């Protein structure tokens, strides 16, 4: 079996952000379901949280290609 | 593309080298590449679109004017006003609107057939954009608080004495290094990974379709998934333009806020 172990590292680095983004959107959906008029206020916060959380996974894929050799 | 050949022998997965596409000049650091051309086209498209839809301003807007106003309204009220504050947001709206438009159009080039290349999947373009944001938010912060006062405002007031120095260094690393790097890498990573995924699905499906046998069915399914991924990519492209502008507004708002 041949391959690149750096991509395995990317898979590991995607676990945490995956769970984190899921939690953020679960909370966002909960909030909107309970109080639909709060959607406009919650939306930037939810996407902000998502953007900051997924940074680790993005580092992962960038570094997977950097350390490819 | 070199990956798609009529007689499949050995499948090679797409890699970073797929994104290096020089068009004119020598094949080296000074070549005019495809993303450079796309960036120029996008600038022309945006100028033409905005001029054409806002030249005749009407009380009852036409369809073009309505779409421009919707995008402008999203950036002005949904992003700038909420995150910078209603007192000072107006002077940053041109910057944020330009950022949003240039990123959105260049991202959409990733799935639009005549272009089919997300400009931001070359790291140089996101770096340039995030450098602009980086310089702007430090500059407006220093202009408002003064040079010393700006660095002082990084540390929240009311900390115990021993904590001031470690917190200051953490905030310094965040402001000077982490923020611009993550801003550029987020846009680059999303565009790069999404595009390479679509290329993988399409070239892999082509390889299986041309191999014959049972693999033909798998190749068909792979191509269906390629279409699904393209639609998903459309969503990500909108989202990344929104997120980049959102974070730029957040950093500017944080730099000029009275209390950190």
From TrEMBL, chain A:
User: Gene name?
Assistant: atpE
Q: Name the family.
A: Belongs to the ATPase C chain family.
> Where does this polypeptide localize?
Cell membrane; Membrane
Q: Which residues form the V-ATPase proteolipid subunit C-like domain?
A: 6-66
Q: Which residues cross the membrane?
A: 7-29, 41-67
Record-annotated site: Reversibly protonated during proton transport: 54
Pfam families documented for this protein: ATP-synt_C
What GO MF terms are annotated? lipid binding; proton-transporting ATP synthase activity, rotational mechanism
**Function description:** Key component of the F(0) channel; it plays a direct role in translocation across the membrane. A homomeric c-ring of between 10-14 subunits forms the central stalk rotor element with the F(1) delta and epsilon subunits. F(1)F(0) ATP synthase produces ATP from ADP in the presence of a proton or sodium gradient. F-type ATPases consist of two structural domains, F(1) containing the extramembraneous catalytic core and F(0) containing the membrane proton channel, linked together by a central stalk and a peripheral stalk. During catalysis, ATP synthesis in the catalytic domain of F(1) is coupled via a rotary mechanism of the central stalk subunits to proton translocation.
| Keywords for the protein's UniProt record, in alphabetical order | ATP synthesis, Cell membrane, CF(0), Hydrogen ion transport, Ion transport, Lipid-binding, Membrane, Transmembrane, Transmembrane helix, Transport
Major localization listed first in the record, in broad terms: membrane
The highest taxon in the source lineage is: Bacteria
Q: Which species is this record about?
A: Humibacillus xanthopallidus
The cross-references to InterPro entries, in alphabetical order and at most eight, read: ATP_synth_csu_bac/chlpt, ATP_synth_F0_csu, ATP_synth_F0_csu_DDCD_BS, ATP_synth_F0_csu_sf, ATPase_proteolipid_c-like_dom, F/V-ATP_Csub_sf
HAMAP family annotated for this entry?
ATP_synth_c_bact (MF_01396)
- Cellular component GO terms, alphabetically? plasma membrane; proton-transporting ATP synthase complex; proton-transporting two-sector ATPase complex, proton-transporting domain
Membrane topology term reads: Multi-pass membrane protein
The record's listing under PANTHER family reads: ATP SYNTHASE LIPID-BINDING PROTEIN, MITOCHONDRIAL, ATPASE PROTEIN 9
Query: What is the official name of this protein in its record?
Result: ATP synthase subunit c
TrEMBL record, chain B:
Q: Does Cell membrane show up as a keyword for this record? A: yes
Q: Please give the GO cellular component terms listed in this UniProt entry.
A: plasma membrane; proton-transporting ATP synthase complex
Tell where it localizes. Cell membrane; Membrane
Record-linked PROSITE patterns: ATPASE_A (PS00449)
Q: Kindly give the CDD domains that the UniProt entry links to this protein.
A: ATP-synt_Fo_a_6
The protein's UniProt keywords, in alphabetical order, are: ATP synthesis, Cell membrane, CF(0), Hydrogen ion transport, Ion transport, Membrane, Transmembrane, Transmembrane helix, Transport
What Gene3D superfamilies does the record tag this protein with? ATP synthase, F0 complex, subunit A
HAMAP family cross-referenced by the UniProt entry: ATP_synth_a_bact (MF_01393)
What task does this protein carry out? Key component of the proton channel; it plays a direct role in the translocation of protons across the membrane.
UniProt-recorded name of the protein: ATP synthase subunit a
Please state the gene responsible for encoding this protein: atpB
């Amino acid at each position: 079996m041949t391959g690149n172990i750096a991509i395995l590292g990317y898979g590991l680095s995607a676990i945490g952000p995956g769970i984190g983004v899921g939690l953020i959107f679960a909370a966002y959906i909960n909030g909107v379901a309970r109080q639909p008029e709060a959607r406009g206020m919650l939306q930037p916060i939810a996407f902000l949280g998502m953007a900051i959380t997924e940074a680790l996974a993005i580092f992962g894929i960038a570094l997977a290609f950097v350390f490819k050799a | 593309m070199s990956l798609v050949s009529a007689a499949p022998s050995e499948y090679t997965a797409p890699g970073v080298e797929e994104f290096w596409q020089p068009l004119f000049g020598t094949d080296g650091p000074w070549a005019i590449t495809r993303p450079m051309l796309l960036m120029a086209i996008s600038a022309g498209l945006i100028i033409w679109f905005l001029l054409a839809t806002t030249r005749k301003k009407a009380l009852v807007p036409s369809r073009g004017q309505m779409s421009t106003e919707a995008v402008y309204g999203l950036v002005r009220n949904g992003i700038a006003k909420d995150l910078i504050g209603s007192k000072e947001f107006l002077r940053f709206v041109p910057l944020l609107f330009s950022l949003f438009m240039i990123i959105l159009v260049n991202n959409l080039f990733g799935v639009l057939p005549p272009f089919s290349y997300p400009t931001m999947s070359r790291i140089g373009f996101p770096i340039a954009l995030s450098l602009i944001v980086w310089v702007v938010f430090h500059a407006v912060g220093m202009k408002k608080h003064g040079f010393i006062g700006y660095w002082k405002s990084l540390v929240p007031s009311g900390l115990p004495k021993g904590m001031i120095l470690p917190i200051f260094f953490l905030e310094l690393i965040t402001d000077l290094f982490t923020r611009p790097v993550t801003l550029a890498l987020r846009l680059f990573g999303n565009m790069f990974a999404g595009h390479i995924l679509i290329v993988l699905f399409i070239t892999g499906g082509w390889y299986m379709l041309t191999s014959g046998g049972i693999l033909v069915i798998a190749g068909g399914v792979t191509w269906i998934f390629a279409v699904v991924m393209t639609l998903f990519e459309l969503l990500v492209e909108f989202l990344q333009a929104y997120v980049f502008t959102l974070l730029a507004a957040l950093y500017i708002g944080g730099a000029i806020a009275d209390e950190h």
